[in-house]
Amino acid sequence: MPTISIETTERSDVLDMTEDVSRAIPDDADGIATVFARHTTAGVTVNEAESRLLEDLANALDGLVPDAGWAHDEIDNNADGHVRAMLVGPSVTVPVSDGQPDLGTWQSILFVECDGPRTRTIQVETVDG
Question: What family is reported (predicted)?
Fold first, then answer.
């Protein structure tokens, strides 16, 4: 099963990984691809990859979920990252045509880091339909 490695440089970060996902899909695939973050403090979503919007998303998650006052912080001080990742979700499923994600005009597959900087592994599973 193809995997993608992503390096993040910030505690909260949003990165466009559409090209990486495209390379992980077999050239002859037609069906669906599920893109899954194998982490509890990171997520995947589909939206526009405009740089200010990516920054807005990271800032919105930071604003929605404060980084202090959580019981889990007694263990490893990253409860906010877990809660932010739960809001985003760990995966997306997208249609695939001719070996490429069949996305809308402004849609991109985005990786959302909630507890970086880290090296992350993303799994891409393609099912022909």
Answer: Belongs to the UPF0047 family.
For 37, the token pair is 């973050």
pLDDT tens-digit readout, 95-127: 999 999 999 999 999 999 999 999 999 999 999
The four Cα atoms 87, 55, 104, 101 give a dihedral, to 10 degrees, of -80
At residue 60, the 3 state secondary structure works out as helix
DSSP letters, 77-117, are S-HHHHHHHHHH-SEEEEEEETTEE---TT-EEEEEESS-S
**What span, in angstroms and rounded, lies between the C-alpha atoms of 67 and 127?**
38
State which amino acid sits at residue 70.
Answer: W
Q: Give the architecture-level CATH label for domain 3-128.
A: Sandwich (2.60)
The Cα 114–Cα 13 span in angstroms is: 7
